[in-house]
Design brief:
Elements: E1 10-16, E2 23-24, E3 29-34, E4 39-43, E5 48-53, E6 62-63, E7 69-72, H1 102-110, E8 114-118, E9 128-134, E10 141-142, E11 147-152, E12 157-161, E13 166-171, E14 180-181, E15 185-190, H2 204-212, E16 219-221, H3 241-247, H4 255-264, H5 282-291, H6 310-319, H7 330-345, E17 348-356, H8 358-374, H9 387-401, E18 407-409, E19 414-416, E20 422-424, E21 426-428, E22 431-433, E23 436-437, H10 445-461, E24 474-478, E25 497-510, E26 518-531, H11 537-552
Parallel strand pairs: 20-24, 24-25
Antiparallel strand pairs: 1-3, 1-6, 2-5, 3-4, 5-7, 7-16, 8-15, 9-11, 9-14, 10-13, 11-12, 13-15, 17-26, 18-19, 20-23, 21-22, 25-26
Helix pairs in contact: 4-5, 9-10, 9-11
Length: about 550
């Protein structure tokens, strides 16, 4: 059972998306899992075949790390796990189990009892993290709740807290290390301080060798953030790995291993595989990265950075342009991937309306003036309401009036949310953030204004907690303060709609009534971007109509 939210301790398997015998590949959905935050799709990280489902659909309160699924490398091995029970396989030894060599058995005997801590998943969309600074050093004692280090995720900088007590025996990545994949070994804990010295020269590579010297077992998927172990899931004993590697010119590697190697600029041909048939798995690539081993590529020029491709570099050299390459932050990298996915997979359509905001501006001025007059030197300064506060409140009430917009798309159903949690797009130095105003429909304008100011300040400082940016049901993006009159925003999945708010502008319109003539009014353009799979055109228009009514008659928000 994987950890799909930072505070998750157990989960409910809502529905399996794969059955026994099915093939899977990286990125395919294994199951829908209900966490303490939301129902999240659990994606496969490796390819293979489902040999055994150990927990049925509908199972509740399954503890983190509990075995729930067995994968094998080939379809012929599925039948061997028909009666497999977790724990039973460890007592049955393969018919031709190879004996470990003296060299490999020595470190196993000399290593005291220890725990290897892998890079955790500190947000549901995190695939790698940057270790900013260690709060502990080798030899320090650790207790539950102690901060081990600060990790920069795709969302924010989060403190990684210890769950067990012990002593730090080894740290594999120094402070400042970037792009550490989830599941990579980063820290070793031991029970007593006297055992720390035994790990003085330990490396992730030697730990991997220790693991590979164990008897072959089926790959039982437990804690998802950990990288799948390089052990064969086949009941048949294979020929030695080295022979297969020499006899074939074809490099056999999992898709995830190829991805890691490409990102690190490694030559797969220089890496020895520890998987079945000499297959290179993710752990082999991670070990090679730790060793810094790409001897075949030492003489070759380094791969260009994403910001400086050969085409752009050549063009710059030809024209004499001066430029600076700015490395991607985690937030910007993930935001780019998710927005690209949104535009490629979500059928967007757009609805635009013009709102008259004279009544709103007058109400805002009256409220702010009355609060300023009522304040004194002994009371804190009142919160000054902004137009955006009214926009958030109006959007939240419109979502209650037209609840079909407050929904998300799933392969088998449309999920309608009972809570109205508004995500607010905030620009920060590291990229776009979307902190959430919880239950915005139930809050007053003053409370909304206070929440927005507090969340925006935290976002810009990179101090948002996961619960403050995970789980919104609708997003608002306001560029009016920059003078932008109108724009269309990209839907923020898994949400189904986002409202783009432009600047307030004055225009002359025909005056109504018998007197005729013209008058000047203040207007604001808003554009609703919708996922057509969830929100039909008429429903989107009804929501925009309700929003417009609240904006043009702001006192109706008090009813």
């Amino acid at each position: 059972m994987p950890s799909l939210s930072p505070t998750m301790t157990q989960g409910n398997i809502t529905q399996w998306k794969k059955k026994e015998g099915d093939s899977i590949g990286p990125g395919q959905i294994l199951a829908d899992i209900e966490t303490d935050k939301a129902t999240i799709e659990w994606e496969a990280q490796e390819e293979g075949f489902v040999a055994k489902l150990l927990v049925p659909s509908g199972a509740k309160d399954v503890a983190l790390g509990s075995p729930v699924l067995v994968l094998v490398e080939d379809a012929e091995s599925v039948a061997a796990f028909k009666d497999f029970v977790p724990g039973a396989a460890s007592s049955a030894k393969p018919a031709a189990e190879p004996k470990p060599s003296a060299a490999s058995s020595k470190p196993v005997l000399s290593l005291p009892t220890h725990d290897v801590l892998n890079m955790p998943a500190l947000s549901p969309t995190m695939s790698q993290g940057n270790i900013l600074e260690w709060s502990k050093k080798v030899g320090d004692s650790v207790a539950p709740g102690d901060v081990l280090c600060e990790v920069e995720t795709d969302k924010a900088t989060i403190a990684w807290e210890a769950q067990e007590e012990g002593y730090v025996a080894a740290i594999f990545f120094p402070g400042g290390t970037k792009d550490v994949p989830i599941g990579s070994p980063v820290l070793v804990l031991v029970d007593d301080k006297g055992s720390v010295a035994a790990f003085k020269d330990i490396t992730p590579d030697s730990l991997a060798a220790f693991k590979s010297s164990a008897p072959s077992k089926p790959t039982v998927i437990a804690a998802a953030p950990a990288t799948p172990a390089p052990i064969t899931a086949s009941p048949i004993v294979k020929a030695p790995i080295a022979d297969k590697g020499v006899s074939s010119n074809r490099v056999i590697a999992s898709p995830y291993a190829r991805k890691l190697a490409a990102e690190a600029g490694l030559d797969l041909g220089s890496i020895s595989g520890s998987g079945p048939e000499g297959r290179i798995v993710a752990e082999d690539v991670q070990s090679a990265i730790q060793r810094g081993a790409t001897k075949a590529a030492v003489a070759a020029p380094p791969p260009p950075s994403p910001a400086s491709t050969p085409a752009t570099t050549a063009a710059a050299a030809a024209t004499g342009l001066s430029y600076t390459d700015v490395p991607h932050t985690q937030i910007r990298r993930v935001t780019a991937a998710r927005l690209l996915e949104s535009k490629q997979t979500i059928p967007h359509y757009y609805l635009t309306a013009e709102c008259h905001v004279d009544a709103l501006l007058q109400a805002r001025e009256i409220i702010n003036s009355s609060q300023a007059n009522a304040s004194s030197s002994s009371t804190p300064a009142p919160v000054k309401l902004s137009v955006n506060d009214f926009v958030i409140k109006a959007a939240a009430l419109a979502l209650k009036k037209v609840p079909g917009v407050n929904a998300s798309w799933n392969a088998e159903y449309i999920r309608n949310f009972n809570n109205v949690d508004i995500s607010i797009a905030v620009q920060t130095p590291s990229g776009l953030q979307v902190p959430i105003v919880k239950d915005a429909d139930k809050k007053g304008l003053g409370s909304i204004s206070g929440d927005v100011r507090s969340l925006a300040a935290k976002a810009k400082e990179g101090k948002l907690r996961p619960e403050e940016f995970i789980g919104g049901t609708f997003t608002i993006s306001n560029l009016g303060m920059y003078g932008v009159k109108q724009f269309a925003a990209i839907v923020n999945p898994p949400q189904s709609a986002i409202l783009a708010v432009g600047a307030t502008d004055k225009k002359v319109v025909v005056a109504g009534g018998s007197a005729g003539g013209f008058k000047e009014v203040s207007t604001m353009m808003v554009t609703l971007s919708c996922d057509h799979r969830v929100i039909d055109g008429a429903m989107g228009a009804q929501w925009l109509q309700a929003f417009k009514q609240y904006i043009e008659n702001p006192y109706s928000m008090l009813l």
